Amino acid sequence: MGLGRGLILVLGAGLASWSCGEAEESTPGAGPSSSAETEPGAPETVIVRDPPVLEPDELAPAGEAPGASAGSATFVDGAEQPAAELAPESSCAATVVQAEAVERVIEIPVEEEVVVPSVFYLMLDSSGSMVSERLTLAGLVEAVLDIFGLGRQSPAPTKWDFAVDGLNSFFSDPASAGLPIALGYFPDGGACDGSGYDQPAVPLAALPENQPPLQSSLDARDPDGNTPLEGALRGATSFCQSYNAEHPDESCVAVLITDGAGDQCDARSGEALAEIAASAAASGVLTFAAGMQGADFSVLEAIGQAGGGDCDPATPSFACDLTADSGAFVAALNGIRDRTRTQTRIERRTETVLQRLPCEWEVPAPPPGATFEPGRVNVRLTSPAGEEESLAQVPLAGGCADGGGWYYDDPLAPTRLLACPATCEELRAETETRVDVLFGCRTVLR
């Protein structure tokens, strides 16, 4: 008999009341009396109480008359019943464990490496300390001397001067061509929850076309105010999360640049700010933290590590150190650009696959008071067209050499029924064949 194709059918491991001989007869249409519990996600079990009755000549081995199973016993509540007292064989096979005709699919998580281009949102500290403090101690001393007319050279540039020079060099670098850049400042009227800071002062656009707007914005900026790190970090990462959601084929990188510690908002510690960066990283946003003179590098370390932004993989630290001069500023930005301009990220998706028919079936536990009789079990296949085929049992796996069928895993203490390789190959190729395991009638042997 050819096997049909269509839905996947899975054999469960349940058992109804055993009906054979003097056992209680099934009532057509009645529900199952019991079924074995299954593990979560296990194939479903359906108990058929009134299946088609198999004819004696279909089930009895050659040379035996129906009902003549000398020395064997069947399931009878409370005790074994001698075979000679059984009803005719045609009254057996009233208990069936069958696979339900329901399509069953498996959803498998799939991880795939995907290379995506990056865009950058630079969040720049423009607090008052960027212009009120000199970048070096020597510069600060020279500035004081100059106040009293004792200075011998011009005061050292401010940290803001170095930031502007470094950014302009980065923007004009030919290696930055084609890189989309957005620029934001803090403080800049935003809130601690990130609102306001998630809207860049210079909108996102690719270099070199975006260089003039970026440079003009920096030149017009007059640093002043405090350092709301929480609002700046939330705003930058929020912008990137929204961008990634709208552009799944790209990846936004947030770069936080500061010269101080947070002195506004509730989240000021490294642990609290790291939680914000970690949440963004979980959604695919890289966050880098860069510090100039006066920054709390322990806080920036926590942000960079949690945000996945390692400024220099060759060193143990995560934060970018910009304290040296404008050259360090440019080098740090170039390093971030070159390592993240295109990212290899893991894309997770769910793939649905078909679950094929199994090639082995558990022997269900018998009801209370009954015992299992290995010689009264049969396996029947039913095609979508209703054609039935009873699989013959072979003594051991070696008996499969001559064809299909099934055998017990252990003839003396069976726990599973296994399909022969040829039968298994047929089952795996089909998707709509029904498998019934019938109890109560003598096993069809080959």
What's the CATH architecture of the largest domain? 3-Layer(aba) Sandwich
Helix-strand sequence: EHEEEEHHHEEHHEHEHEHEEEEEEHE
Low-pLDDT residue intervals, each spanning 5 or more residues: 1-94, 99-103
Output the CATH class name of the largest domain.
Answer: Alpha Beta
N- to C-terminal separation? 17 Å
Structural class: alpha+beta
**Average pLDDT score:** 75
Count, helices: 10
Tell me the radius of gyration.
38 Å
CATH domain topology of the largest domain: Rossmann fold
**Approximately how much helix is present in the residues?**
10-25%
Number-wise, the strands total 17
The number of domains:
2
Shape: elongated
Short account of what is shown:
This protein is α+β, with helices and mostly antiparallel strands and 446 residues long. It has helices at residues 56-59, 129-132, 137-147, 159-172, 211-220, 229-246, 270-282, 297-307, 326-340, 421-429; strands at 46-48, 73-74, 81-82, 95-98, 105-125, 180-186, 202-206, 251-258, 286-291, 320-321, 342-354, 360-362, 377-382, 388-391, 406-408, 416-419, 434-439.
